[in-house]
Protein: DUF547 domain-containing protein
Organism: Stylosanthes scabra
Amino acid sequence: MMMKNSIEQKDTTTAANNNKFQDDVKFHQENRVVGRKIHNGMMKAPSPMRDPRHPSPKLRERNPEMYLDLPTRSLLDPLLSEETDLKWQPNKLSESIMKCLNFIYVRLLRTSRAMELEKSGPILRSIHSSLSSRSFRVDTTSSNTKSSLMLIQREARQQDPYGIFDTEESIPRDIGPYKNLVMFTSSSMDPKFISSPSSIPLLRKLRILMSNLQTVDLKGLTYQQKLAFWINLYNACIMHGFIQYGVPSTPEKLLALMNKATLNVGGNIINAQAIEHFILRKSAASNIKEVQRKGEWEDKESKIGELYELESMDPNVTFALCCGTRSSPAVRIYTSDGVTSELEKAKVDYLQASIVATSTKRIGFPELLLRNMNDFASDTDSLVDWVCNQLPTSGTLRKSMVDCFRTNHNVKASTIVDKIPYDYEFQYLLSI
């Protein structure tokens, strides 16, 4: 349902809310973590002196200029022109909130990229221009040019967001749709970017949309509708938390942010931890106690599950819940009509982009997958079989995995599986 009163109204209440919101925003920055090597069953960071390998040989070169070709204001106008209405259908409201947050992050990314190009001087701008024409010659001996080329190479590596090709023995292949995603890192989370004139209307819109969550009515929703709604709200809660409180510098501070960032849903204050562990997942008692211990939960928060817990858990939510780390899945918008197929696609896309197969006949599984193994298999051996069955039969990754098992046919599959440690570096993967 469309909102009926223009968000552009200039009443003093809205202006005051805007000022308060901007005053609360604080930001931090983190440095990027380099790639990994396999060592003693773990993926370890290689020497910082070694340049990462080209992430995807034989794939079509991506023009770095593409990353600056983000949505223009004309594409955002429909969102900005939506009108206020207290009778939002829950799923449409959650989708609109996620759409607005995505546009905000895209705007921040667009602004930071433009300023980065401006600071880099005419050399990098010339290279970008030349790349777009697919014909250029440049003197690579000067230090300025080398720095510019490093920026371009960093852009090109975005087609390998999990750094699976940073491992020397990794077999080159197509990683699927993830190669087309754009990385949003801490360098784009800067106070001057979020306070820019282009971001303020979207931030105002976001506050209006989120205020409508207070009166949303979830009664009568189907299982699919509730599933899509809560996945969107989990991702929205954390994305909004970063805008409010900044980028945490440690895993412990990330956990604190996930407890501190809240939404008012139907008059109940809910954070991301509650959404995941008491609504989307049927956590074991031991897991709930661990979450309560780490987050210092109170009884009132655990009662959220009694109000909103889903009838059953879809294990594929693992590949939909994004907490803003480099090891998180891509952030997407889930719909009530297509959530089942959307989760299935999210699963396959994530597996293709995050698993390592090496020429030394070893397999690297991300810690996120191993951490949630019991949702899909009883042990690592059966998890390997499950993964193979999820991948496209004609895909290179599945063929490489099968080849590894054939070569090591006398050993358990689990003995050739290494863990890729979870990377808590701030990052979002966005579809443009």
The mean pLDDT is 77.
